[in-house]
Amino acid sequence: MRRNMRRRGGQRVLWPLMAGIWLAAMLPAARAQLDFERPPIDYHRVAVHDPVARLQKKIDSGEIELKFDSSHGYLKSVLENLEIPVSSQSLVFSKTSFQLRKIDPARPRAVYFNDSVYIGWVQQGDVVEVASVDPRQGTIFYTLSQTQSERPEFVRDRGQCLTCHASSRTQGVPGVLVRSVYTAASGQPILGTSTYTTDHRSPLRERWGGWYVSGRHGDDLHMGNQTVSGRRGAESADLSKGANCTDLSKLVSVSPYLSPNSDIVALMVLEHQSQTQNRITRANYECRMATQYDQMMNEMLDRPKDYQSETTKRRLAKVVDELVDFLLFVDEYPLAAPIEGTTDFTREFAARGPRDKKGRSLRDFDLQKRLFRYPCSYLIYSESFDSLPQPVRSLVYRRLWEVLTGKNTGPRFAHLTPETRAAILEILRDTKPSLPDYWR
Q1: What single-letter DSSP state applies at residue 44?
Q2: CA distance 191 to 363
Q3: What is the pLDDT of residue 33?
Q4: Burial class (CB in 10 A: 0-12, 13-18, 19+), 278
Q5: Among residues 249, 227, 248, 251, which one has the least CA distance to residue 239?
Q6: For the residues of 237-257, what is the DSSP string, one character each?
């Protein structure tokens, strides 16, 4: 079959000419980057309705006015209007941002987040960095100039951010990630040493290289709060030097920041959320691409319009299984010691609910043996989850129901005791209105 070829982000992307169907839409789900720049995703051209896009409309109409101050530019006002807590602040000092020239261990970048928006702020930075989750299109990237303006504008990125934020590290879709790298005193990652993309499955010893971390975690050590000297320094790094730090002012000047902390619990939530959201986006894209492929082939082969091919069924089953695993914290790293943060993040995050008739919430923390008391991700309440195409959302609900009711007792879900399954099921029945009728 003849094929067209083009380049994007330094990678070659191939697709067949036949009926305009590209190869990415024909292959089963894989960790390869999807061609989301073409229909049916059309990432760069379809209008978006993410929280930042909605905020921009209010700015344009005069309903909201962003406030500017000399210390942080628009940062405080952006956080306030997007309802992002200051307690979520995490400080990263590795040069892993496009504003890398302004970042080093003495001037870390601050990251703030809520369930759907991520904000990056750099001392004396030219822009505020923004990633905002659109319910249908996934993560959309923006910058906001730190020069005071009568009508500030969030400028949508047109490809620069995707160099790092659309790769195998983000499940092949536009998304955010938490990287852990051995970092030199200059802030540069040490080439030739281990680098990790971390989530709730990662051992602590692989987490937070290049980040400041405030909080207690016992004898279970992480890579944060220190720099190393070359490859040999990385290989012999003493992780205990950065352990159980509750006062970051001993390591870095924290006065320029909105908070003196880089809370360990916030970091753990950020890791889980980033990769779970990426899998929601992946499931969305895969379903839309597979559906378009089926529609085109059904027309060509004179099949019923709603016919679903075996290839599509396998493709959707794969991404659904991966998403359900993340929603239910399969392979979560078991904590070897209790975790304790240094801010109000733990309380503020849990207080957002929703709660069932017994007062329980999927946002309730455990922090003794695992991250959450009821290991089912709060992202099940997100707009992006509710906006999953019906075929894939129905499969997710069915898989979850099979696990939570004990019909699926496979080894992947051995971490869920009967009591835990029953509790999650009851919480969802009380707090998730859109559940299928068979859940009731």
Answers
A1: T
A2: 38
A3: 72
A4: buried
A5: 227
A6: --GGGGTT---GGGTS--TTS
Closest CA to 116 of 95, 143, 91, 136: 136
Tokens of 42: 């059309």
Token digits of residue 151: 């009508």
Written as six digits, the tokens of 30 are 């894989």
Half-sphere exposure of 434 (CA within 13 A, CB side): 13
d(Cα 151, Cα 59) in Å, to the nearest integer? 7
What is the per-residue DSSP string for 290-348? HHHHHHHHHHHTT--TT---HHHHHHHHHHHHHHHHHHTTTTPPPPSS--B-SSSHHHH
Does pLDDT of 3 surpass 70? no
- Residue 110 bridge partners (DSSP): 91, 121
The Cα-based distances of 403 to 29, 201, 329, 369 in angstroms read 23, 20, 12, 21
> Could you tell me how far CA 60 lies from the centroid of its own chain?
28
Going by pLDDT thresholds of 50, 70 and 90, the confidence category of residue 32 is: low
Q: Can you give the pLDDT at residue 424? A: 98
Q: Which of 137, 139, 136, 93 is nearest to 113 (CA)?
A: 139
Kindly state the percentage of the chain with pLDDT values over 90: 88
Predicted TM-score (pTM) above 0.85: yes
Extract the tokens encoding 328: 């239910």
Q: How far apart are CA 20 and CA 109, in angstroms?
A: 43
| pLDDT for position 29 | 38
Q: Is the pLDDT of residue 339 over 70?
A: yes
Residue 372 in this model has a pLDDT that exceeds 60: yes
Written as one letter, the residue type at 278 is: N
- Secondary structure of 83-137 in HEC code, one letter for each residue: CCCHHHCEEECCCCCCCHHHCECCECEEEEECCCEEEEECCCCCEEEEEEEECCC
Asked whether the beta carbons of 166 and 172 are under 8 A apart, the reply is yes
In the chain, what's the furthest Cα-to-Cα distance?
Answer: 71
* Backbone CA torsion sign across 34, 40, 44, 50: negative
**Residue 18, token pair as written in the block:** 């036949």
Tokens read off for 306:
């709603």
Cα 239 to chain centroid, rounded:
26
